[in-house]
Write a structure and sequence with these properties.
Helix content is 40%, strand content 13%. The model has no long low-confidence stretch (mean pLDDT 98).
Length: 367
């Protein structure tokens, strides 16, 4: 089976893990973190071209900490797209605020600008635009509206590390950016995430929140938790980050070939603006209806290709969110996408012959 995504681990990562184990320093509760955490943060900030990168134990933690650092609290509203992974909304709930779900642009699968603007109220404090599948959101338009209404922007770039919007790295354009290093992402630390900022005061506050609101130890001055990344995870991340450019290059090569082979098909292909660079975390096509999507997926699965639906249910339709009153929301593009999208593997382990096989199955199944 060709998996939809897979971590690429070599002897280099294994050797770094052994190095950490032999050092005896597996984690460090100080505000600065341990030696591998500090080195990983420095290299990550340089790669992302941002002032500060604070690594944490998951992308979800990154989102929650971002909200805490900006003072989002009960009674506040935070606008989020419904068509994304549930972590984006869960982070809002976890700080006691209220997620306000909006629809997506059906062409890009990212937040619809008009829906975003129409959802703003006196209680709105922030927006979390998601760079879905690895395509940067229209941040200039988001920023213009956010500035008009005095809103914070938390850019959820958990799927978009290495993607570029008008010359700037995804995750570095909002007030805070968040990354994920889950094993299926374009690089991994095993589990992990990062918070990107260009503000010293905000960066220091985030580091405090990461370790129980402490500065020197046993002196909690603000509310925080244990969101620390371990030294083992950081060591893996260091190696993966150095490999990331080659990973992204191979993904782009695979995506380009698949795009070419499917250009005359009946499927709707990804649309990338000239000023954006996709990181090809996921190559997502759209079929004409749910029946055709499921048929194509079954054909691919039978041939050993793990075509996957991201996401089969918009967040507002998930059982928990239905139980707290969101189930009757009308977000037609989110619901259409959930019934018609299909993501295909283009990660670095996918070979040219795999791409050709995929395209033949799709072409024969949709003619």
């Amino acid at each position: 089976m060709i998996p939809i995504n897979k971590p690429i681990i070599s002897n280099e990562e294994k050797e770094m893990v052994i190095k950490v184990l032999e050092s005896g320093i597996l984690t460090n509760p100080s505000i600065e973190g341990g030696p591998f955490v500090r080195e990983f943060e420095k290299e990550l900030a340089n790669f992302m071209k941002v002032k500060d990168a604070i690594v944490v134990n998951s992308g979800t933690a990154a989102l929650q900490i971002a909200l805490m650092a900006l003072g989002i609290k009960p009674g506040d509203e935070v606008i989020v797209p419904s068509f994304t992974f549930v972590a984006t909304a869960n982070a809002v709930i976890l700080v006691g605020a209220k997620p306000i779900f909006v629809d997506i642009d059906i062409e890009t699968y990212n937040i619809d600008i008009k829906s975003f603007k129409n959802a703003i109220t006196k209680r709105t404090k922030a927006v979390i635009p998601v760079d879905l599948y690895g395509l940067p959101v229209e941040m200039d338009e988001i920023r213009e509206i956010a500035n008009e209404y005095g809103l914070f922007i938390i850019e959820d770039a958990c799927q978009a590390q290495g993607a570029i919007y008008k010359g700037r790295m995804a995750g570095t354009i909002g007030d805070i950016g968040c990354l994920s290093f889950y094993p299926g992402k374009v690089m991994t630390t095993g589990e992990g995430g990062a918070i990107l900022v260009n503000n010293d005061e905000l960066g220091r506050k985030i580091r405090m929140i990461r370790t129980h609101g402490q500065i020197k130890g046993y002196d909690s001055v603000i509310l925080g938790g244990n969101f620390r990344m371990s030294e083992i995870n950081a060591a893996i991340g260091l190696v993966q980050l150095r490999k990331l450019p080659s990973f992204l290059e191979k993904r782009a090569k695979n995506a380009k070939l698949l795009m070419k082979l499917l250009e005359d098909s009946n499927v709707i292909l990804p649309k990338i603006p000239d000023y954006s660079i996709h990181n090809w975390y996921l190559f997502t096509i759209r079929l004409r209806n749910e029946k055709e999507r499921d048929y194509v997926r079954e054909k691919l699965l039978k041939e050993g290709i793990q075509a996957t639906v991201y996401y089969p249910t918009p967040i507002h339709k998930l059982p928990y969110y239905k139980s707290i009153g969101y189930g009757d929301l009308n977000l037609p593009n989110s619901e259409l996408a959930s019934k018609t999208v299909l993501s295909l593997p283009v990660h670095p382990l996918v070979k040219e012959e795999d791409i050709e096989k995929m395209s033949k199955i799709i072409l024969s199944s949709t003619s």
